[in-house]
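Entry for zinc ion complex. Fields follow.
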Amino acid sequence: MTNCRGGNLPPADDNRPAFVYMLLCSDSSFYIGWTYDVADRLAAHNAGKGAAYTASRLPATLVYQEQFENKIAAMQREYALKQLSRGEKLMLIGDVPEKYDGEYKLIRSARKTVAIHITRGGEVEVRAPLNAAIKDIESFIAAKSGLIAKHKQEIDTRNAVKSNFHLSLGSRLRLLDAEYPLVGINEDRCGFDGNCFYLPANLADSQIKAVVIKIYKKIAIKAIREKVVKYAKIMEVYPAAVKVNSAKTRWGSCSGAGSLNFSWRLMMANEEAVDYVVIHELAHMTEPNHSARFWDVVAAVLPDYQQRKQLLKETQEQLAKEDWE
Ligand SMILES: [Zn+2]
């Protein structure tokens, strides 16, 4: 007796083995998906037909795959992989530095969980409950060792770049949209004359940075006050005082009493970005919080404030590589 099944139908979807795969895109981000045929799917991605995400980040490279009994299991794993942090994904594909087995400082306190913290100087600190057993702490560290090593390596690299930052006569210094040389003169004064930063030629290298900061502060107070006056008029607000400080992480701030503070480090940003910070702080005089109304006030003066924020971010990234302490 013949069986009247027609052609060779593929088996029902749910019973075919399925795969989870991870691609590394051209912008170094990861894409995770599931498929019945990894090679076929990879080809589709690289032809721009796999997903909108990968299509704009080609070429994509297959860096990881796992096989499952069926589609449901693969989809569950796909979901779990998507929840992983970038560091965890890197660990999964084996792209991690050697495991961390160095020293750490143990800090016990009345806390409930163990946590690892890497200081700005690159030291590893482990914070643990008062009664946590050393073997539990050690196994916690062992489980996280790849991530610790990776994070520590990033911090160490950043610190190494920072420690290469030196100022000396001839260095070029950013000021708003331009760069100017640092020049030594045979007089006991310092400043900026529109063409160069100048200071006494006989200063030791170790003294130069402090003097350069003094010059930046002098420029900042004048430049920022001018901008505040200009935009306060347009925005019809009347700040009580304008001061320049050395804040590292806040470009500007506005106190309740209408006193505005700005970091001298703003002088290393683009002029358009400085205008944005001034307008941002002036807007706080009428809108204290970053509400939709606040951004409306900013946008009324600077419709392109988003681009200016981006410029500021670039300056922040550049400053992170320089040692201005
Ligand atoms: Zn703000």
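NOTE: The two ends are 89 Å apart (CA to CA).
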